[in-house]
Amino acid sequence: MRIKKILWASDGSKESRHALKWAELFATRFGASLSALSVIEIPEIGTLKIPADVNTKIALIEPDLVRRAENQLAHSAKILEPKGIRMETRVVRGIPYQEILKAARSHDFDLIAMGKQALNLWGRMLLGSTTTKVLRETHVPILTVRQDTSAPAVKKILVPISFSPGDTRSLEYAFELAGKLSATVYLLHIIQAHESWDKITEGFMGRLRELATHKLDAVLQSISAKSRRGVREIKRVKACRVGSGIVDFVREQAIDLIVMSTHARRGVPRLFLGSIPERVIREAPCPVIAVRP
């Protein structure tokens, strides 16, 4: 795993500005270059019968939007300069998710930093369409950020483990980050069974926990000793619903960052929308790095 080139995808929102703070953190710790991209999307109105005077006014909107986006990116770049971070900026016209994917491919970025919608009525139902589409289609790890942090710090990294093929890469990624950030790595496996089963099955849950703990040990052993050297790790097994259990654990343990695979549980590849990772990204109070196997 490497982080040498970071793309900050800016849409001018406050969540996007929060994401820049985290992009700055990773750029500083990994010695990575930082690039900013803003996409101006002009609505398709060619099929409408618009009066000439209105059409003239509409034609003036696009250059103004471009100027505003350029000024916003230039302002952000200027703030970073005294910190020794030089950020290249670019404003393009097009469909946002397509331009972000194009930039990720053509410039070989190692990480994409984006904002995610606040958790309001709509936020409980879906992520922003641009974020969702990029998550579905890119193989570049994506850092999504919602809440503001004046000075991002990472001391606790959570890796949800489902014993699927994607676990190894997300765990390797987490250990690499932990080594650079001096953080503790938490491994969490959720057993989808109610505690009441214990009363009926005479210690069944205890046996499941023991089995899961052994499997967590095996997953850890799949990571090279060199990658794990000097990094503290903590294993946990909980019985609850997977999505809510992960989010609750984040709040209980004051986790700073989640690193998780985008594959569904049991190792079955599926579309991202509606999956457990999508729910965690949507609801988690901390930033999430989604890693494709």
Short description:
This protein has 293 residues and is α/β, with parallel strands linked by helices. It has helices at 14-30, 52-80, 96-106, 129-137, 167-181, 197-201, 204-221, 225-228, 242-253, 276-283; strands at residues 5-10, 33-40, 87-93, 111-115, 142-145, 156-160, 184-191, 233-239, 257-261, 288-291.
Walk me through this protein's architecture.
The protein is an alpha/beta fold and 293 residues long. It is 44% helix and 20% strand. The protein contains ten helices and ten strands. A ten-stranded mixed beta sheet has the order 3-2-1-4-5-10-9-6-7-8, with helices on both faces. Helix 2 (52-80) links the parallel strand 2 (33-40) and strand 3. Helix 3 runs parallel beside helix 4 (129-137) and helix 9 packs parallel to helix 10. The chain is elongated, with a radius of gyration of 21 Å. Mean pLDDT is 85; it is low at 118-127 and 264-274.
Note the main attributes of this structure.
single chain; 293 residues; alpha/beta; ten-stranded mixed sheet
Topology of this structure?
Layout: E1 5-10, H1 14-30, E2 33-40, H2 52-80, E3 87-93, H3 96-106, E4 111-115, H4 129-137, E5 142-145, E6 156-160, H5 167-181, E7 184-191, H6 197-201, H7 204-221, H8 225-228, E8 233-239, H9 242-253, E9 257-261, H10 276-283, E10 288-291
Parallel strand pairs: 1-2, 1-4, 2-3, 4-5, 6-7, 6-9, 7-8, 9-10
Antiparallel strand pairs: 5-10
